[in-house]
Amino acid sequence: MESFVVAKLLDKIHTHTAQVAIIGLGYVGLPLAVAFAEAGFPVVGIDVDPAKVDAINAGHSYISDIRTPLSSSLKESSQFDPTWDQVL
């Protein structure tokens, strides 16, 4: 059974269908979420600060390592879904 689960996970990783969840969209979480989304994975980014999530959804980055505006294609393609109220 374990090898089946591992094989299924590896298949999802190779086909970019594994959904990635990032908890905290700060200096580590936001660049990580953007990197996964740009690599083609669907990403849910969760942060408790609605102001951060609103800024990201508006295309603004408060982190110098992330270009501003954030790529609108990430939101339009539904690759990156930042939220403050989603429970996985």
Describe this protein's structure:
It is a single chain. The chain is of the alpha/beta class. The protein has one domain (19-83). Helix content is 41%, strand content 14%. The protein has 4 helices and 3 strands, in the order αβαβααβ. It has helices spanning 2-14, 29-38, 50-57, 72-76, and strands at residues 20-23, 43-46, 80-83. The protein has a 3-stranded parallel β-sheet. It is elongated. The model has no long low-confidence stretch (mean pLDDT 84).
Break the fold down into its secondary structure elements and pairings.
Blueprint: H1 2-14, E1 20-23, H2 29-38, E2 43-46, H3 50-57, H4 72-76, E3 80-83
Parallel strand pairs: 1-2, 2-3
SSE pattern, N- to C-terminal: HEHEHHE
The total beta strand count reads 3
The number of helical elements comes to 4
Structural class label:
alpha/beta
Shape descriptor reads elongated
Low-confidence residue ranges: none
What is the terminal-to-terminal distance? 24 Å
**What portion of residues is helical?**
40-55%
Number of domains: 1
Based on the model shown, name its key terms.
elongated, 88 residues, alpha/beta, 4 helices, 3-stranded parallel beta sheet, single chain
